[in-house]
Amino acid sequence: DTGVSQDPRHKITKRGQNVTFRCDPISEHNRLYWYRQTLGQGPEFLTYFQNEAQLEKSRLLSDRFSAERPKGSFSTLEIQRTEQGDSAMYLCASSLGSWETQYFGPGTRLLVL
Amino acid sequence: AQSVTQLGSHVSVSEGALVLLRCNYSSSVPPYLFWYVQYPNQGLQLLLKYTSAATLVKGINGFEAEFKKSETSFHLTKPSAHMSDAAEYFCAVSDRGAGSYQLTFGKGTKLSVIP
């Protein structure tokens, strides 16, 4: 296993721009999660996929956020019209079968200027 | 809704000393509980988990945690700290059997190890 990978690792953007992040889960992991981590806080759940179906969304996921997992493999998280409050680390995790053990990627650190 | 409180945002111990990181949870149902570790510029790595089997759970790198229902606690311990243990530690809870797959994390405790 190569582990969960995320791209890019860092992103700097200007307020109002759109950004898209990619997550590649561990091969054959059917569950995929997105979390957001701000400075000094623990990760906060954003959304969850089982295969290609998005089964759970946090109320933190405003209308500007959208996530997809089109073929049940990689996932993308898009933020439209970014705001300074969106600056955070975006973490992706995946699991197989038993959801208890989530394996995390290195994260994408977003800075909105 | 479940929640986690980690007491102490920063803990310092001497190398070779006992490590004790505190975690208290709130859950309406018996929970699943987890400890994750995060090294700088890396993702979270699972240290150990409690899923209703033995209340004393052993994890990687010599860490263990004890589930105490009466105290709603799941404190993380290690008998002897090593320099490589310096990292941030997160306690997390997930409602057991509630159909929710999300983890709720505490704010984290940064562990420093003094040589």
Core attributes:
heterodimer; A: 113 residues; seven-stranded mixed beta sheet; 11 strands; 0% helix; B: 115 residues; mainly beta; 56% strand
Distance between the termini of chain A: 36 Å
Radius of gyration of chain B: 14 Å
Mean of residue pLDDT values of chain A: 92
Strand content of chain A: over 45%
Whole-angstrom Rg of chain A: 13 Å
Class by SSE composition of chain A = mainly beta
Distance between the termini of chain B: 41 Å
Structural class of chain B: mainly beta
Largest interface: A-B, 25 and 25 residues
Describe this structure in words.
The complex is a heterodimer of chains A (113) and B (115). Chain A has 113 residues and is mostly beta strands. Helices cover 0% and strands 50% of the residues of chain A. Chain A has strands at 5-7, 10-13, 19-24, 31-37, 44-50, 53-57, 65-68, 75-79, 88-95, 103-104, 108-112. Chain A starts with a strand and ends with a strand. In chain B, strands 2, 4, 5, 9, 10 and 11 form a 6-stranded mixed beta sheet that branches.
Short summary of the structure?
The complex is a heterodimer of chains A (113) and B (115). With 113 residues, chain A is mainly β.
Topology:
The complex is a heterodimer of chains A (113) and B (115).
Chain A: E1 5-7, E2 10-13, E3 19-24, E4 31-37, E5 44-50, E6 53-57, E7 65-68, E8 75-79, E9 88-95, E10 103-104, E11 108-112
Chain B: E1 3-7, E2 10-14, E3 19-26, E4 31-38, E5 44-50, E6 56-58, E7 64-68, E8 73-78, E9 87-95, E10 104-105, E11 109-114
